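## tool: complex_structure
## caller: assistant
## args:
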Amino acid sequence: MYGVGILKGLGITLKHFVDTYVDDFKWGIRRYTSDEGFTARQGLETEGLFTVQYPEEKIAVPERFRFVPFLVVNDQDHATEPDADWCTSCGICAKVCPPQCIWIIRSTDPDTGRPVPQPKDFFIDIDICMNCGFCAEFCPFDAIKMDHDYELSDYDRTSTHIYNHAKLAKPLSYWQMIAPSRAEQERLSREADEAAKAARKRK
Amino acid sequence: MADPTPAIHNPDYPIPEELRNNIAITTLDRIYNWSRAKSVWPMLFGLACCAIEMIATAAARYDPSRFGMEVMRPSPRQCDLMIVSGTVTKKMVPQIVRLYNQMAEPRYVLAMGACASGGGPFKEGYNVVDGIDKFLPVDVYVPGCPPTPQALLHGFITLHEKIESQSITTVPWYRKGESEAIPVPILGPDLIDLRQASLINYMSTQTPEPPQPAAAAEEPVAG
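## result:
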């Protein structure tokens, strides 16, 4: 018989429509105002409408989410070197970057003319970046990490979407906030490395 | 983010004290832009993987009908917004430019994702255009590879802010005369942008200069 599929499909739509009101009566206003209501609406058990009211509420991104990279710098209240770059401008990230969207300007000592392990400037064209995370994966100093901020749209490409060092630098505490378990893991492995190095020196 | 009440939305007209609660003053721009920004109809076409993410945005969880954008029209005559969602190949760009020319003004272009904005991973590929902005005037660039649905929605909101900051007195589509169509590029041995045809003609008629002889080599030191 023709038309049964259409009726079934429309029945599903109607069921969700009715279930939205059932959910609304069950939860009341909390369905739209509280965090539990949002989680319940997004969960597997939800029956009614599950639309994310985007600018007001956002689905939390997972810790391993990758968007445009950022550079890790020391916190402002760091004991000895506030705001110091972790990046040594070694250029490994620029080499492994598949779409080649990273440019690094290395800095040199003005007196001796010898290179200083610090970037003078650091550019990422975020309109080329393919969010693969190779730079963060290959960086031997944990100095470049993938950000979670995806709200980057803008009106002009050349003036706003080629990020320089000032736009890329974010403190370590930001990385610890967006990816707590990975930051902790990296801190432990760095400390183990340093301990091993010190032990080698003592010998 | 733009100023919530840009200057064009503030008529700056003094209301007498006794009429404060009875009169609301706005500008024509505000009503005009409000109605325009809340009914932007995108064109129904996708080019690559970003289109999948655009479909996800158009589905129930992110639901662009909250912004009046759920009506994706398959005809350029009925569209306000062209979402260039994906890699723009040299073979596809003549069609895209033609579609843009067929759209009625006011029209907007949103470059979605790395490929449409700047070429992305294929930026120096033999068959890929490095960003649709080489041919079309792009209004909003949404970075990401691909942008998540929420990132695309942020691009939509950015576009709405742009629409709301335009003024009816300065927009190009109310000027006198017809607006110029963008010449459709020709797919040849390499893509020819007709807007640069005179430059290409000029350069092809010039005879290439003979290569300068290298600076005289130093006398080889004997021994």
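## assistant note: Chain A has two domains: 1-58, 69-202. Residues 30 and 39 of chain A are 11 Å apart (CA to CA). Handing back to user.
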